[in-house]
């Protein structure tokens, strides 16, 4: 199943695909599906999606070898690895590390093509997505 098909299935369940990842933890391969929903993701949402995907992935595994499916919310503090992640996080605080190792901390104001506008303590800073090494949202306590 490709990502477009996965997105459509999840939309039919009332949730949206945020991201997928393959992780290896304690010798186990984990295929994670992160979902989002307006108002937040519940355990019931994760269970519904897991029950929907399990039989499909039994027939068409997303990875080779032994693996485990996990369905969860990306959380309040989440990785921003796609331009779409930034677009879905407008209004949230982010920590961005650029390829030159400099860091920018501020609120995501807008996304236009590959350009992301962040309001930091140094004013508004325009960043090209291709200049970002890593980024994540964070909550200020």
TrEMBL record:
CDD domains: YlxS_C
Ranges annotated as spanning the membrane: none
Annotated InterPro entries: Ribosome_maturation_RimP, RimP_C, RimP_C_sf, RimP_N, RimP_N_sf
Pfam family, any one: DUF150_C
Key word Transport present: no
Keywords, alphabetical: Cytoplasm, Ribosome biogenesis
Similarity comment text for this entry: Belongs to the RimP family.
Described purpose of this protein according to its UniProt entry: Required for maturation of 30S ribosomal subunits.
Protein name in the entry: Ribosome maturation factor RimP
Gene name in the database record: rimP
